Amino acid sequence: MNYSFDFMYDIIKNRNKDYDGVFFTCVKSTGIFCLPSCKAKTPFSKNVEFISTALEAKEKGYRPCRRCHPMNGPHFYPKWLEKIETYLANNLNRAVLDLELSNLVNLEISTVRRHFKNKHTLSLKEFHRNLRLEKARKLMQEGKTMKEIHPLVGYQSVKGLKLAYTKHLGIM
Ligand SMILES: [Zn+2]
């Protein structure tokens, strides 16, 4: 974020939509953070802190504004998360290792986990398991047996798949 405070303050005064997702306005007096285009009254500059990601704003203890919903919209999440999602979706027949994922995007696995959870509210493992079990459900609907399906969705036994599947349906 290479903009000056005055530049950004001007953006929020004008409610300029072009900068939504580029930076966030955190309001120290209310503990709320907003998109630059938020329609709410522009806060006094002394109460404003600008932050580059919604995640950082949340980590600093700010809550998302109910008016502009700064957590919504795909462009507020790092682009590389899509690589992770595709990779998980393309590897349903086995467990995916942390190392593969961190190598894929060249980031620490803890960073990957943090951003992933922030976007999906599921861990990498939970997300991957859901994909695998949804695939199992589809294959069952096509008439395949559990015995045929379990190696295709990364379960070592029919028993393991059955257990996970029942639990999955139970929580859906
Ligand atoms: Zn707002």
From TrEMBL:
<dbReference type="Pfam" id="PF12833">
    <property type="entry name" value="HTH_18"/>
</dbReference>
<dbReference type="InterPro" id="IPR018060">
    <property type="entry name" value="HTH_AraC"/>
</dbReference>
<protein>
    <recommendedName>
        <fullName>HTH araC/xylS-type domain-containing protein</fullName>
    </recommendedName>
</protein>
<keyword id="KW-0010">Activator</keyword>
<dbReference type="InterPro" id="IPR035451">
    <property type="entry name" value="Ada-like_dom_sf"/>
</dbReference>
<dbReference type="InterPro" id="IPR004026">
    <property type="entry name" value="Ada_DNA_repair_Zn-bd"/>
</dbReference>
<dbReference type="InterPro" id="IPR016220">
    <property type="entry name" value="Me-P-triester_DNA_alkyl-Trfase"/>
</dbReference>
<dbReference type="Pfam" id="PF02805">
    <property type="entry name" value="Ada_Zn_binding"/>
</dbReference>
<feature type="domain" description="HTH araC/xylS-type">
    <location>
        <begin position="82"/>
        <end position="172"/>
    </location>
</feature>
